[in-house]
Write a structure and sequence with these properties.
- By secondary structure, the chain is of the alpha/beta class.
- The protein folds into two domains: about 130 residues, HUPs (Rossmann fold); about 120 residues, Rossmann fold.
- The chain contains nine helices and ten strands.
- The longest helix has 25 residues.
- The two termini are about 15 Å apart.
């Protein structure tokens, strides 16, 4: 299903947990984990400082590689140092490395720090169109028995966006759900959304999902409540491009769910 998964690491417990999650996902497959650390040369004051940091990073990557090889000996573990900022990595770089999927750790929402500064994970999600699984810190891979695809019933079939979630559903023989959240269930769906729902029913015919509609004042609240009620193991979403004003004043639904859920989040791009 996945041949090469890239796992960014800053050598924290959160990043290590994401790497173990990726290993557990790939057990029994002929696959490769690519451990990547981004090192920004512009942050170094001198060539000597850059060399010292580079040597430290190489040593840390080798230690992480050895730990993962011991944890998952059937997988190939590669390491790479990216010269630049993680949040500015280009799509060409991922294509060059033949990356199928990113698995990235997240500490989620910090209730004690109301700083508006985004984490690297949030910045990457906002600026890149790469398929990724965001793994909350401490969450272990336990299989995907129940999978949820949350949709706004807008057009989804661009560039085969649904192929990955369909492959995961089929590979895990999971119980699958498609969820639409809106404020008022008494109002009928718009014609365009009815057509999209019918299209999704055809697209997911091989995965035989249950379609649900729930009412909630906030979309993310409806998704999170459903996740808890149906014991969902993986939540899948397609981010939407917001207008400039929305990017300034509002967080996306994907980001809100990523901040608050304790379940892996599959971001489809």
């Amino acid at each position: 299903m996945f041949n090469r998964i890239l796992v960014p690491t800053n050598f924290t417990p959160c990043a290590h947990n994401a790497a173990k999650f990726a290993c557990d996902m790939l057990r029994g497959q002929k696959a490769t984990i690519v451990l990547m650390h981004a090192c920004d040369p512009s942050l170094c004051k001198s060539a000597d400082e850059h060399d010292r940091k580079a040597n430290h990073v190489k040593e840390s990557l080798q230690n992480e590689k050895s730990a993962l090889e011991a944890y998952a000996p059937d997988l190939v573990i590669e390491t790479v140092i990216y010269e630049g900022r993680f949040t500015t990595m280009s799509a060409r770089y991922f294509k060059k490395k033949s990356i199928d999927l990113l698995v990235i750790g997240s500490d989620g929402i910090n209730l004690h720090d109301r700083s508006p500064k985004d984490t690297n994970t949030e910045l990457f999600m906002a600026s890149h169109r790469q398929n990724m699984i965001v793994v909350p810190n401490g969450v272990e891979y336990m299989g995907f028995g129940n999978i949820l695809f949350a949709t706004d019933y807008r057009y989804h079939l661009i560039d085969k966006q649904l192929d990955i979630i369909k492959d995961i559903m089929s590979a895990h023989d999971s119980k699958n759900y498609v969820l639409h959240v809106r404020k008022d269930l008494d109002n009928e769906l718009e014609v365009a959304k009815i057509i999209e729902k019918q299209t999704l029913e055809q697209e997911f015919a091989g995965q035989d999902p249950e379609f649900h509609e729930v009412s909630a004042e906030k979309i993310e609240e409806g998704i999170l409540k459903f996740v808890n009620s149906y014991k969902i193991d993986l939540v899948a979403l397609i981010p939407r491009k917001n207008t400039l004003s929305e990017r300034i004043f509002r967080k996306s639904i994907t980001k809100k769910v990523a901040e608050r859920t304790n379940k892996p989040l599959l971001v489809l791009n």
